[in-house]
Amino acid sequence: MSEAVRVPDDDPALSNLRLLRTAEGTAAVQRAAGLFAEGVDLLTGLSRLREELGPELAGPAWELARLRARARPVFGADADLLFLTAETLEQAGRPELADRRAARLLADGGGPVADLGCGAGTDTVALARRGASVVAIDRDPVARELTTANAAALGVGSRVRVVGGDVVDVVDRAENGWVASCAAAVLDPARRADGRRQLDPDRWSPPWSTVARLLERVPRALVKVAPGLDHERVPDGVEAEWVSVGGSIVEALLWGTGVSTTWRRTTLLHDGGFLELTAEPDPGTAPAGPVRGWLHEPDPAVIRSGLVALVAADLEATLVDPTIAYLTSDATAGSPWVRSFRVDEVLPFNLKKLRALLRTRGVGRVTVKKRGSAIEPESLARQLRGPGPESAVVVVTRVAGAPTALVCDVSGG
Ligand SMILES: C[S@@+](CC[C@H](N)C(=O)[O-])C[C@H]1O[C@@H](n2cnc3c(N)ncnc32)[C@H](O)[C@@H]1O
């Protein structure tokens, strides 16, 4: 074994990773990937690999082949080259989003960028692929080994310097717009601990105090935050962006004062491209009005970013209630920012009356949606199910303060 792959015997994850980077390791992962692709089950796969490669390589090779297969739908061809652990794969974002972030951060100038908490190196690689030299910092030796391995495997190793360190201290030393000798930085705090999501930003690692300090001291900074981040936390002059894919928020970002161009932004990955909605200043709340022929459910990123009023104005729609993010208008919207449903009936919420109405309409299958109501959608859907051949969407919400059910056409708009 060469010097480069000599392994410490105290950290199995690190030694496995170094073993997998050797020529024997590469061949072992290829063999494991072949068995995996044939659909061979875990026990058979492992016993064959043990026979062929020995016990030391069999388990790590099988595990990496399994993680690469899991990464392939998102990472495409890169997945076959990536080094991953289950935890870092979970933390790594989508590469097309990492590329979009890197392009925007670098748009106003190149120069080295600090990746503060580099994990498996997804952001580091995206920045390096856009031409930046990157100082990738992590306190976890496995993360550092992964970033080194991935930068090399994806052909950008020469632009990446991986170093150990505590990001809290690194950011404490930031001044005059510079951190870790870089005038731009990406910070993606770990927001899970012991397998659980940490809802309190003060419990992220590094914690909110480091996020706030970085945004204060380094204008060309980008921080990934939890989608549920309280707007109150967003410092003045910092842009907050929520990104949605397929109707779910996939990331929320804070853009430092040197890269911010607006107050709030909602971004939608749509038909392979990005659609954006921006507001400067706060557009406030949309007006409310009676339920009309169509109900529109805004994308969750529109709601989280506080831009419902913009979509309402565009659709000539009103809120069904000042406190509820359902919109209503006379016409179908055909807008990527909302899902639309034709409203067939509006009635005060009453289980017996609702069930009777659905029976008369021949509705058997019901999908329940709710907002501003304590009902449990799945259990209500079971209670409303009947023998009829038709389907309906029942929306339980408040209309002008009153608990209301809207029976809608499933085909939507
Ligand atoms: C969410 S992950 C980053 C994922 C990464 N952006 C990627 O694309 O793969 C957070 C990383 O920050 C590191 N980290 C957390 N607290 C840290 C600290 N105080 N100092 C250095 N690294 C830290 C963790 O070890 C972890 O690798």
TrEMBL record:
Transmembrane segments: none annotated. Keywords: Methyltransferase, Transferase. It holds the Pfam family Thump_like. It comes from the Bacteria. GO terms for molecular function: methyltransferase activity. Residues 338-409 form the THUMP-like domain. InterPro entries: Methyltransf_25, SAM-dependent_MTases_sf, Thump-like. Residues 113-171 form the Methyltransferase domain. GO terms for biological process: methylation. SUPFAM superfamilies: S-adenosyl-L-methionine-dependent methyltransferases. This is SAM-dependent methyltransferase. It comes from Petropleomorpha daqingensis.
